[in-house]
Amino acid sequence: VGVGYRAVKPTPIAGDDRPVLTIDLAAIVANYRQLVARAAPAEVAPSVKADAYGLGMAEIAPALAAAGAKTFFVATLAEGNALRALLPAAEVYVLNGLPAGGAAALRAARLRPCLKSLADVAAWAEAGDGAPAALHIDTGINRLGLGPDEVAGLAADRRALEGIEVALVMSHLACGDDPEAPMNARQLAALGAAVAALGLAGRPRSIAASSGIFLGRDYHLALVRPGAAIYGLAPLKNQPNPMRQVIRLEGKILQVRRVDSDMRVGYGATHLVRGPGRIATVGIGYADGFMRAIGNRGFAVLGDRRVPVVGRVSMDLMTLDVSAAPPDLVAPGAMVELIGPGHSIDELAAEAGTVGYEILTALGRRFRRVHLAAAEPGA
Ligand SMILES: *Cc1c(COP(=O)(O)O)cnc(C)c1O
């Protein structure tokens, strides 16, 4: 379980029944600084794609820049344009590469594509102005990047690289969260071989995202590209999480129902409550990214007590068996913790059969969102 979420209560708004998502910018900055210390002297270039993993790029990117980050990664041109408007001086790499016909738009916003194919390389070189870009080498994940045949072709005829300032040669690990995976070392070696074959030995290299930073010095190279760890997710599987927790998600109890005799709960009547007991209905559902998969599997936290999710999660509601919770905490209007110090994102993800990345990026748009400032007085 991650540590150190600041216990600051957002100001209540009368009549507001929305779940509250609190995002601690100071914890985000602390996580960034921890990675800077671990990866030094490599540069730490945060990934803020997908609206900073659903947590708000407009608040998070400036906070990271104020803490010293100079280079950022996004997925798309549209995200790059949004980041450029926030940070006029940052270096911004676009992970998905060069969209067809998009070279002029990227240049206009001074964005750097991660060139993923010979077609990308040719299209970027066409303008002949030596604009900087990353060269993305696929060393085994088989997703984006120049494959071995394309690297060999380019090595045999380097003319296509003329007109491009290769500011970074990058690759991405398939099994970075598993220090035992032999594939990590193979991919690192393949990147080195590609760099040598292409005559780019002097150029900065990058292979590590969050988990790669924790594989040790060999993987740091010139630059690391963490996202998940900055947002508090555990970088390595089956190991304690050294990152600070960043978010807290609380939902409001709308109704409490007493169950005197055996009764069933929710759509499909999938859960049987053995009376006597109490069921609390909370105003959050799968339309908020609170996944249906946690029906009859997940937990919430009331006080210091874990209470099970019972019955199916529906669009706007879910139900908790609060029979064992302290009665004074169970009342309409009371808040239950869904993600926070007592229930981490990674735990919720395990209950839902997914990864923390999907939980974060699915978090809903109808929450009340509160960003705690990076520098709070006295923090
Ligand atoms: C998303 C992404 C990252 C960041 O990954 P995390 O696991 O969130 O740290 C880095 N590099 C590439 C190529 C990515 O797609």
Along the chain, the helix and strand elements come as EHEHHEHEHEHEHEHEHEEEEEEEEEHHE
DSSP helix count? Answer: 11
Mean pLDDT: 93
Q: Helix- and strand-based class?
A: alpha/beta
Ligand kinds: pyridoxal-5'-phosphate
Tell me the fraction of residues in β-strands, as a range.
15-25%
Note the gap between the termini. Answer: 22 Å
Sheet bearing the most strands, described? 8 strands, mixed
Give me the Rg, rounded: 24 Å
Helix content: 25-40%
Unreliable stretches covering 5 or more consecutive residues: none
> Overall 3D geometry?
elongated
* Count of distinct strands: 18
Highlighted features:
8-stranded mixed sheet; alpha/beta; 11 helices; about 375 residues; binds pyridoxal-5'-phosphate; single chain; elongated; 6-stranded parallel sheet
Short description, anyone?
Helices cover 26% and strands 22% of the residues.
Structural notes for this entry:
There is one protein chain. By secondary structure, this protein is α/β, with parallel strands linked by helices. It contains eleven helices and 18 strands. The chain has helices spanning 25-39, 49-53, 57-66, 77-86, 103-108, 118-125, 148-156, 183-197, 210-213, 345-352, 356-362, and strands at 20-24, 43-44, 71-74, 91-94, 111-115, 132-136, 165-170, 205-206, 223-224, 247-259, 263-265, 271-273, 277-282, 299-302, 305-310, 318-321, 335-339, 368-372. The strands form four sheets. Strands 1, 10, 13, 14, 15, 16, 17 and 18 form an eight-stranded mixed β-sheet that branches. A six-stranded parallel β-sheet has the order 3-4-5-6-7-8. The chain has a two-stranded parallel sheet with strand order 2-9. Helix 1 (25-39) crosses helix 3 and helix 10 packs across helix 11 (356-362). The chain is elongated, with a radius of gyration of 24 Å. The protein starts with 19 loop residues before the first strand and ends in a 7-residue tail after the last strand. 45% of the residues are buried. The mean pLDDT is 93. The protein binds pyridoxal-5'-phosphate. Pyridoxal-5'-phosphate binds next to loops. Pyridoxal-5'-phosphate binds at residues 47, 49, 95, 172, 209-210, 225-228.
